[in-house]
Design a protein that fits this description.
about 170 residues, globular, two-stranded antiparallel sheet, 4 helices, two-stranded antiparallel ribbon, alpha+beta
């Protein structure tokens, strides 16, 4: 399985952002793989208005067929550069905070309300744990969310062929 982008692209992206991988970090190929897995897992649920161009056998969420961005048709062979950059960002977060992209939120360990003396804090439940448009229960990053947001389908919008089923 191959992650989005290239090792050189990931290295160039890091340099362009003024970032560097920590000593002992996994290789660029591993981080691209982890970042790509994360972005697809967190956001593919919001791509239901289109389909994987290669069908369900396709390893990644992109390229897609039938996808539109605004009023424009997206080519069936396009992998949005923003999606690639989001996977690079997720890979970088995994390198600097091991487990960020591979860990999940444990619903059994989330506290709704916590009080210590006169200080009281309230937390969100697992159903609203994700920030932005990421799937519930998956950690999110504002930069990753911002990169993929223009490519996501409108909430609740479905492809016409999912509206009717022949039984």
């Amino acid at each position: 399985m191959a992650g989005y982008g290239t090792d050189q692209g990931f290295t160039d992206w890091l340099a362009g952002q003024g970032l560097a991988l920590p000593i002992g970090a996994p290789t660029a190929a591993v981080l691209r793989q982890v970042g790509s897995d994360y972005v697809d897992a967190a956001y593919e649920h919001r791509l239901a208005c289109s389909h994987r161009a290669g069908g369900y056998q396709q390893e990644r969420a992109w390229p897609r067929t039938g996808h539109r961005q605004g009023r424009n048709d997206v080519p069936d062979d396009l992998i949005p550069p923003a999606w690639v950059n989001a996977s690079y960002r997720a890979g970088y977060l995994q390198a600097t905070q091991p487990g960020w992209a591979t860990g999940a939120v444990d619903p059994g360990r989330i506290t709704k309300r916590e009080k210590a003396d006169v200080i009281e804090r309230e937390f969100f439940g697992p159903d609203v744990m994700a920030a932005g448009d990421a799937a519930p229960g998956i950690r999110a990053d504002a930069v990753v969310n911002g990169l993929v947001l223009p490519w996501l389908c409108a909430a609740g919008r479905r492809s016409p062929d999912t509206l009717f089923r022949v039984i």
